[in-house]
Structures are given as structure tokens and as C-alpha cells.
User: Fold these one by one.
Assistant:
Number 1:
Amino acid sequence: MHEYDIGSKLRELRLARNLTLQVVAREIGFSIALLSQIENNHISPPIATLSKLARFFKVKMSSLFVEKDEEKKYEIIRRDDRPVISHVVSRGGSSHGYFFETLSSGMKSKKMVPFIITVSDEVQDDATYSSEGESFIHVLSGSFFILLNGNRITLEEGDSIYFDTSLEHRFLPAQGVKTTILEVTTGRT
């Protein structure tokens, strides 16, 4: 598996605009410590946090996963070469209990962002998130809960959900069940 240096790309974006961590933290509502941990690749933020950072810097979220500046017309990601974003944590620095693998990272102008997300039972946070766009989720194995606009919805193997990501949402594990889901998002590429 392959991991991307998202932190360095975010640091480059910040420094190119002559911004301090303090200014970025104040503007987007994250702590300086969290931004520093992200920039130093000590933690991997959830997709919603990456989306907010990308919007702040006026770049597509997918650009954080691109290794080269060339535009591709197609992309193949082999099973053993999926970029993994592990140890996903909240804005406050606690564990969300999931990690994700991007299924397409090299195409700059894509309209969808597909991920495989593994949900475990190591959740230490209950914050919800929202972003611009839409999301399609299909449960490949296991079961989990999605908090969606105040509702707790159980999704099991074979179930799918499609929703507007402006609704407050988050994933919660089922007790003792490791779950794998496919998520395809739009609006935060």
C-alpha cells in the first residue's frame, strides 16, 4: 500500500500564500496543534477536514493525492497499491475509528472521489461533519451506523445510502464488527 504526503502539500499551499498556522487556524476554525500535526503527517484528517482545507486554499481535494502534475485520462489502481489514509482523527485530535483508501488519486479533473473505508470499533469522538456535495455509500461487509442529520441509521452488508453531504453526518461502528464500505463523493474533488 502507498501513503501520500498530504501534510507537505498543505504546508506548501499555506507557505505559498505567506500564511501562518495561526491565521489558517483562525480562518477555518481548527486548532493550531491539529494543523501542525496534519502538516507533519503525524495524523490523517477525515475527508471532511481535507475538504475544508482544500476549499480554504482554493484547490481540488484530489490535488492533495496527486503525485505528478500531468493530467491523466484514465487511471488503474491495483489492489496492493491503494493509497491509505490511516488513523483518521477528528478536529480535536481523537480517533474516528476508521481509515480510508482512495481508489482514484491521479486524475485532476474528476467529478467523483471513490474510497474504500474500513470502520473499526476504536471511536473516541462523536463530532459530525458536513461539506459541499453528495455521497454514495455501499456496505461491502459488516454493518455500521451512520448519523445523518440527527438520525442514527443502521446499514448492513449489501445496503446503500445516497445523501447530500451538507447534512451533518458521521460513521459509527457496530459493537465488535469490522466493516468495509465503498464511498463515492462529489463536490469535494
Number 2:
Amino acid sequence: GLSAATVAIAPAPFRGVIPLPVSALRAAWPALRSPANARRRTALTAAQFRYGFANAVGASESQALFDEYAAPAPGRPIFQAAGANLDPWTEARVDTRAAHRGPMLIVAGERDHTVPPAVARAAFERQKSNRQAVSEYMLAPGRGHSLTIDSGAREIAESALSFIQRFV
């Protein structure tokens, strides 16, 4: 049977997703600046967090989000996404032609620096090539990468739930 509906919010690039905007490189630079970061956790400063995650909210909300959610994270996924089209053995690959894939909604934040709309849109274009599955794209106006944790998160959650309910 079909798989469950999926909502991919600001999905990381995978093999075949070509756009690599400067903002995405800048947001990933704290991890990418050293190859050793592929094997360790890296932390963002408050300014890096604001640029990469909370650029679409006010300074005080950005700082509150940083204080609540920022934590050192593994660098490996950043390296995998950045090199998805260079590494023939990449783990960052997706079977976009899977016949069993359920409906998928890809959500992008209009002002997202980490996964800019061009990247999310390219992922959507790859997914919609699967003619056996529903693929939809939603651009969240004025939203950044923190769209699931900031003051507008409820709106994103309601949109995602509405999509899923159409297929239940």
C-alpha cells in the first residue's frame, strides 16, 4: 500500500538538487569551515543563529529562540548535504521515483537562509517527477528557517495538518 503523507519542512538538499545559494553556504559555514567538523559537533554563536535560523523574526525573539533551542549539533549532515552532488556514494540521496511514496508537501520559508526557497523548490521539482505520488509545494511568506519554533509556528503546523488530513 501507499506510505503515509509526509511534510518536508525546509528539506536538506539531496543528490540532484542543484541550487546552492550563497546564503546557504554562509549559514552552513560554521560547520563547513573545518573538515574536522564532519566528525564533531559545532555550536553557533547568537549572531550565526540569527542569520541561519531566526533572521525573519525580531532580535529579541531571535535571542529567546537561541537561548531555548541552540545546542551543538553534528557537522556530518551539513557535509553530506553540501557534497550530495559531488560524492557518488553519498548518503544524501532520495528515490524520487518510489512507487509506494505517499503524498508529500514541501514547505519553504520565503526568507530562509539555511534552506533557501530555491533549494526547497528544486527538491519539490525532483519529487513531482514521480507521477505516481502527489507532490505539493508551499512557500511561507516572510518566514525564515525557524518557522517551526518561532511565534508563527502554529500557522505552519496548521498548514501541514491540513495537508495530511486531505489524505487520511
Number 3:
Amino acid sequence: ALPLLSLPSLAYVPGYPMLLFVVEVFFLLLSPLLNWWSRRLESRADRFALHVTANPTDFASAMRRIGCQNLVELHPPAWSTLLLATHPPLYRRIELAQSRAARV
């Protein structure tokens, strides 16, 4: 039974729209946190790739190519990155590579 949603059970088919609505709102509210986590993991993956390949110039070049091929905005608005992005902004990934190139 799901008393919170006033549904007698999960088998109550007329209650599915309400259940799906509640689940959708839950994930809508949770998505900024999940996207932050994904951006964090992708940043770690970028640093690992730069460490393993030891070729930051090619990494930056690859990021630029990916951006052009996928029509990715180089410097998206902060709100867009915060709420929607699952990867770090392209300019940050390129800056990371350029900072590593300066150290090498």
C-alpha cells in the first residue's frame, strides 16, 4: 500500500499516472546532484587520461574536435552547467590540459 499517494497498492493501475508524476518530480529535483556527481567523475577521468597519456596538447586538441563535431558550446552559462551538464564545460577541460602542458 502507498498511503502517501492515496493508492491502495502498486497493482492499482489508475494510480500509475500519479506514481509516475511523483517519480518524475523526484528525479527532476535529484538531477542537479546526480549531474554534479557525473561532472566530478568526468573531471577525474580527464585528469587520469592526462596523466596516463602525458600528452596534454593532444588532449586539448581532441576536446576542441569533439566540441566542433558535437556542436558543444565552449563556454555554456553557469546555470546550464549547474543544472543540466553531465560533463565539465569544454573550456575547463581545455584549460586543464593547457595548465598541464605548461608544467611539462
Number 4:
Amino acid sequence: MNQPTNIEKVYDEHSVRLYNMSLRIVGDRFEAEEVMHDTLIQYHSTEDKDGIRDLRKWLSSICIRKSIDKLRERQRWKVLLESYEDPILEEGNEDISDYDVENIRKTLYDLPDHYRAVLSLHLFEGYDYSEISEITGTNENTIRSLYMRGRQKLAEAIRQKKS
């Protein structure tokens, strides 16, 4: 239960990781910075800091939830401004394992929010489908479909960049 109480120390130790985690999900550096700050503010305003067993995990969980909330907020605005149609699910599995991580990360930022969030949580943060389903409040089968479609779109985008 040995939690640092000095917010500057917590900021120094966790801000870069939280920012990068959020950036991979939201795909916008300003929103990622806002999420990182909101996460640290939530920690700072938490009364029972001694009740947090694993600060790194606690902060990651809060950051991921806030990032997903950002995506939901963005989607609500998008629906108000324009009609949005979900991409059609195409059959087939694309294997993206042959591509280097840095290329995947760069291309990931260009994907639509819902794909980017699921791919980032699964590929980079190591969450399985049921955990992503729990975090996002989305049906596990929907998460699997988003992951498969997102992987396919990611592979297509990477191939196009290589061409």
C-alpha cells in the first residue's frame, strides 16, 4: 500500500505512459493529453489512496476508460453532424504479424476510432476480448468483429503505404 502521495512524483512516473496509452486509443494528441491530465487529477482527488493496491494498473484502467469515454463523446457529436454507416464486414482474415510494430502504430492512428480503440487495447495493452467488452460496455461478439475488421483495414492501409 506504499503509494506516492506527491502528485508531481506520480506525474513524473506515469504521465508519459498514460499519454501514449490514451494517444493510441483516441488518436489525437490534444485529447490524449487531456485524458492523461484528467486521469492524474482523478488520482489526486481520490481520498483513499492507500486503498489502491497497484497504482500503475489503477491509473491504466482509469486512463483507458476516460479514453473510451472521449471516443464515445466524439461519436455522439459525429452522429449529430453527419449520418454514419458502419463499414460492411468482409470475409477473410488478414495477418498483420509480418509488419513491424512502429509501422502498425503509425498506421493505427489513421483508422476510425472504434477500430483503433479495440486494436490498441488488444495488440498493445494485451487485453483479451472479454476484458475489452467489460471496459467498453460492448458485446464481446461485437468486439471480436471490430477487431477482425480493424485488423483487415490496418493490413490494407499498411500494404497501401508500402506500395
